[in-house]
Amino acid sequence: MSTIFRILLILALACSGPLSVLAQQKIQVSNLTCEYQDNPLGLDVRQPRLSWKITSTLRNVNQKAYELRVGADATTLAKGKNIAWQTGIVESGQSVNVLYGGPALTSRQRQY
Question: 3-state class of 92 per DSSP?
């Protein structure tokens, strides 16, 4: 199996109070990986592991939840359409090796 998997991560962040627009701009999700690779062109696993890092110039910012969405097209996926699989909001600080749990991936299938 050689599945193409590009990464687009929708992530819910929380801190001790509401985030202003300025604060949201200072929080970034980076180092998106799938099976320890940036935008892999092919995978040989049935349940790829997804990871990311959160960086911020603000203090006391922690991940409280995340939501992963997978689809065949990055543009429509970013708009919340044509979603093949999504986790829903998962209350967890986990950001390393989160298992893909969607429909079985097939050879040469591109996913975002």
Answer: coil
Domains, in order of start, for the chain: 4-101 (2.60.40.10)
Q: What is the DSSP secondary structure assignment for residue 60, as one 8-state letter? A: S
Among residues 84, 2, 8, the alpha carbon closest in space to that of 44 is found at 2
| Inter-CA distances, 94 with 13, 14, 68, 91, Å | 12, 13, 12, 9
Token pair for 53: 């890092």
Note if the pTM is more than 0.85: no
Are the C-beta atoms of residues 30 and 78 closer than 8 Å to each other? no
Q: What is the pLDDT of residues 69-101, one digit of tens each?
A: 888 888 888 888 888 899 988 989 999 999 999
